[in-house]
What we know:
The complex is a heterodimer of chains A (276) and B (283).
Chain A: H1 8-34, H2 53-60, H3 68-96, H4 104-116, H5 119-132, H6 142-164, H7 169-176, H8 181-209, H9 225-235, H10 240-275
Helix pairs in contact in A: 1-10, 2-10, 3-6, 3-8, 3-9, 4-6, 5-6, 6-8, 7-8, 8-10
Chain B: H1 2-33, E1 37-38, E2 43-44, H2 50-57, H3 59-93, H4 97-108, H5 115-120, H6 123-126, H7 131-138, H8 153-178, H9 181-189, H10 194-222, H11 226-231, H12 239-248, H13 252-276
Antiparallel strand pairs in B: 1-2
Amino acid sequence: MNSEKRSLGFYVLTAFFALFVLFLYGPLTTIFILSFQGPNGGLTFPMNGSSVHWFKNLLFEQQAVGDFGGAFTRSLLLGLMTMLATVVVSLLAGLAFRRRFLGSGPLFYLTIASLIVPSILISLGIGLAFQVFGLNPAWYSSAFGAHLTWTLPFGLLIMFAVFNRFNPSYEEAARDLGATSWQTFAHVVLPIILPSLVGVGLFGFTLSYDEFARTLMTAGTFNTLPLEIYGMTTNVTTPVLYALGTVTTVFSMAIIVVALVAIAVLRKRRARKVAG
Amino acid sequence: MTLSRLAPYLQATPLTLILAAFLVLPIATIAMVSFWDYDSIQIFPAFVFTNYEETITSPVTWNTYINTFKYTLIVWALTLLIGFWVAYYLAFHIRSTTMQMVLFLVCTIPFLTSNIIRMISWIPFLGRNGLLNQTLMSMGIINQPLEFLLFSDFAVVLAMVHLYTLFMVTPIFNTLMRIDRALIEAARDAGANGWQILTNVIIPLAKPGIAIGSIFVVTLVMGDFITVRFMSGGQSASVGLMMANQIALLQYPAAAANAMILLIIVLMLVGAILRVVNIRKEL
């Protein structure tokens, strides 16, 4: 196809794709701009001057509702816990599924079911189970488990994709050279799949950091950031809401960029090693 | 040797335990509580069918389901249409792999940011004094701001398409990338035109991706409550929202009965999709 001239279809689809990207990013851009609204500005255009008033208001003043700092800390910690658990558990399960074992079929379907069951059911179910067993739900216990039911299937599917493309002759070569199975894993398998593990970690962190429905009934006494933001939407009618939106989105984007750079660097380093 | 035979079991144990504790047990609890009784202050163990009876015989439930199916059908059709062409463009019109990955990431990044923020971000655009109304009024197309833009079914569908199209793009893109380009060459050599190649070669081979994307979108929309609550301003109903309201009123057994019915319907829909398309070989 490469030698052909661009057809009319190409230009039509390019325009369509550009519109789609505009559709994805346009609204986010508007709240980004509006978060720099002047002190007397409102929730919509026109801009009434421009300032960082609402960011200062968000970060340094006591809000009428909620506790932004505490919610952010909890979401950050929960995201990191979920990320670590997702990477470790998906990697182990991915390794397990490379071989046949009794119950692998049911476990696979259970993992897929975890992806399909509506979030609100997980939320309700975990909330009820904790109540029935007389436990207090908290963001680090019940919400942590609820988030894992969402991140682990993604992690496992990524591991499947990785191991489907993994060439087992590397491991055989290592074993022929006398490496133990641990050495083979640590010095051969792990370096090859490391970029994908960073990807799994990225999914684990961001999906947890932004999760709302699964946290709703499982967070317990203290809110996570998405719950806090949702609470604000019903009470706050100033651009401080947009400032919060901008801050959390910039934070998410920064995490994504760091992860992508890490993946690129790891890949390049590997390529250099292989070439050298 | 025994250890190496045991290894997969040990490696699969953490996943199994987590899913048992946070998926199987909670759903079993919902199933149990759906037969419990409740009054205005507490729930108590019992074995009654009233929760199911009340749910099934209430016309509100039926209307809510009809509304939810309406959302599901519209959002599914739109995300499929948009998602397919976006994936098609990326897979067949972008020539360099690097560019493909960059554009794919451009589509993926919003998925990794907050859904709530992405919903909020429609307010300045669709609101009564929002950008769209201002633009249309200044162009003289309308005299009064359009009221239906925000807090309406229109807004719900728009936000869902915005949130969920990526779930279509990714699996379809994945299957399109695996299509052997020689098949398309062969079809063209055999005299097929662009449309025939699309309908006879590409779409049949993209079916598994379409099915996976459809499962995602259907289950997400069927269980959604936050988009419906936020974007309709509380004016529209969905099954998820009905459950969320019952939960807020502490009517857990009623919510649990609703949840069981929703779960059965979602599993039936997924089963129906899997009957049409076999996705096993994709996984």
